[in-house]
Amino acid sequence: MITFEHVSKKYDGGVKALQDVSFHLDPGEMVFLTGHSGAGKSTLLRLVLMLERATRGQVFVDGKNLGKTPSRHAPRVRQRIGMIFQDHKLLRDKTVFDNVSLPLMIAGMRYPDIRKRVRAALDKVGLLSKEKSWPLMLSGGEQQRVGIARAIVGMPPILLADEPTGNLDPELSQDLFDLFGQLNSQGVTVLIASHDLSLIRSMGRRVLVLSQGRLVDDIAGADVGRSEA
Amino acid sequence: MSAGGLRRRLRAWGRRQLYSFFSSLGTLLSHRLGTLMTVLVLGIAMLLPLGLYVSVKNLRALDLQQQDWGTITVFLQHETGENEALALAERVDQQHGAGVEAVSPLQGMEEFREASGFGQALDLFEENPLPWVLLVTPLQADDAGLEETVGELAEWLEVQDGVDLVQVDYKWLKRLAGLLELGGAFVTVLTVMFSLAVVVVVANTIRLDVANRAEEIQVLNMVGAGNSFIRQPFLYSGFWYGLLGALLALLLLSLSMFYLQRPLESLLDAYGNTFEVSGLGGRGMLFVLLAGGLLGFVGAWVSVRRYLRQFRLEKARLQR
Q1: Count of CB atoms situated within 10 Å of the CB of B280
Q2: Which residues of B touch A111 (CB under 8 A)?
Q3: Which domain holds residue B30?
Q4: ipTM of the complex
């Protein structure tokens, strides 16, 4: 579903964010991406979203070679990916319903279908009663769940999350990861960047470890929790 | 692509347009004060050329009443009596084949009293100060030789006994026509200038709009919105600005016309013209509204095209 082949990313200033990174995610996999801040986690996710382009190597998403995809087709790539941000990135002047419905509006879906899908997505994250609220009226955890509803409302085959639990307390973080697990069990490929090691360990899933732009470890799910003392 | 697929995509496109259409309207309404100020500026900018256009148009309508053009007004000397005046009128008619109307001092006084409103002041005169007046109209249908005919006739009249002053309306009407032509040219110049102003004002407003919504644009970009989806609400906003500005300009124009109508009509009455002040008419108004909307759209387009590109570059630079 997501494949990196010897991918390097060098920014204009000369900073090497990623160096020779290779890995492959099968459809329906759930994988964590970890490492210190500045290790290149965000850059990796931005490459998948086509917000950046690789300086070297090839990135394949959903069967598409992103290096050969023109920028004007980037929206089509992004429409197949649900993205969850640490700071939610909700639009403050739109209601919860309008925020969640954005991807469907962009797809030009019929309004009755939009209603159905948005309510289903809000129901899944347990916020159906808040559809008319404004984002600022919600708690941090609720805002994050609105962000997740927006990411899954278009039923994308891929879900990316960048430090989704960064601002949440442990209990809420656990709930959130359980929600990701649930979505994954329905066939969605999930890639989560996080540095919450104890939480990652508790999930027992495959883990990619980045350090200074290099992929230093790729631990299979069965080995997670055992490998580190 | 199959026909069904194309139809589906067209429908999706239509729904996106609808969404942009309403979301742009919602944005304008949620920033009422800012919208109001922009619309006010646009309205006034559009009012100036429109007002001048309507003025010139009305003056043109005046100038169309061309039967007055060739009329020569002959003021006789004060001591000239009725017999001499009528005799001169007779001579003009016979020798030059021109229509002559003799206006006695008494008639003149009555007309003046009605038209000027100086009735009571006129009562102060012990005797009528007005002389006999002959209104001479050469009998010539076409315009071509009119100026010459009038000129010759005026010269002849000037040297007749008992004639005090010969006044040729032709000359000042000609000057008026010249002024009107100038006015028309002025309307064109003003229209071009102020259209440009409308485009610039809308472009600047939209530029600020884009800057204020940088975060929203970024989010839309990341959840898969294409350039056109991001651009459209701004283009529609531009259209709304222009349309509302034009609407305001028309409203202000109607108000000013309503205010000016009475004094203008009584003034024209005094010149012996029955004349109705005419506005733009339904078609004209529709045209102004559409033109306003179009100018706003163009302004937004100019701004969004340049600014979104710049914004994207900047964003890329910032996120290193």
Answers
A1: 18
A2: 15
A3: 20-65+175-318
A4: 0.85
Q: At B107, is the pLDDT very low, low, confident or very high (cuts 50, 70, 90)?
A: confident
Are residues B191 and B307 located together in one domain of the fold? yes
- What is the rounded CA–CA span in Å between residue B320 and residue B310? 16
Of A13, A77, A91, the CB nearest to B216: A91
Together in a domain, B206 and B283: yes
Residue B246, domain member (yes or no): yes
What pLDDT sits at residue B218?
85
Beta-carbon separation of B16 and A76 below 8 A: no
The answer to the question of residue B168 being in a domain is no
CA distance A114 to chain B (A): 12
The two structure tokens encoding residue B252: 């202000």
Dihedral pair phi/psi, residue B172, rounded to 5°: -75, -25
Residues of B in contact with A118 (CB under 8 A): none
Interface size, chain A vs chain B, as Cβ–Cβ contacts under 8 Å:
61
Torsion of CA A12, A14, A20, A23, to 10 degrees: -50
3-state secondary structure of A66: helix
Contact A75 B224 (CB under 8 A): yes
SS3 A5: strand
Q: In this structure, are B48 and B95 located in the same domain?
A: no
Residues from chain A that touch B15, judged by Cβ atoms under 8 A, are 105, 108-111
**Whole-number percent of chain B with pLDDT over 70:** 84
Q: Is the domain of B232 the same as that of B196?
A: yes
pTM: 0.72
Domain end, chosen from B132, B161, B190, is at B161
Lowest mean pLDDT among A105-109, A201-205, B72-76, B276-280: B276-280
All residues of chain A having their beta carbon less than 8 Å from the beta carbon of residue B229 are: 75, 106
Task: Let me know if residue B273 belongs to a domain.
Answer: yes
Please check the confidence at residue B219 and state whether its pLDDT lies above 70: yes
Output the CA torsion sign for A121, A123, A129, A134: negative
B interface test, pick of A106, A111, A150 with most B CB neighbours within 10 Å: A106
pLDDT band at B265 (very low <50, low <70, confident <90, very high): confident
Q: How many domains are there within chain B?
A: 2
Put simply, whether B308 touches A (Cβ < 8 Å) is no
One domain for residues B300 and B152:
no
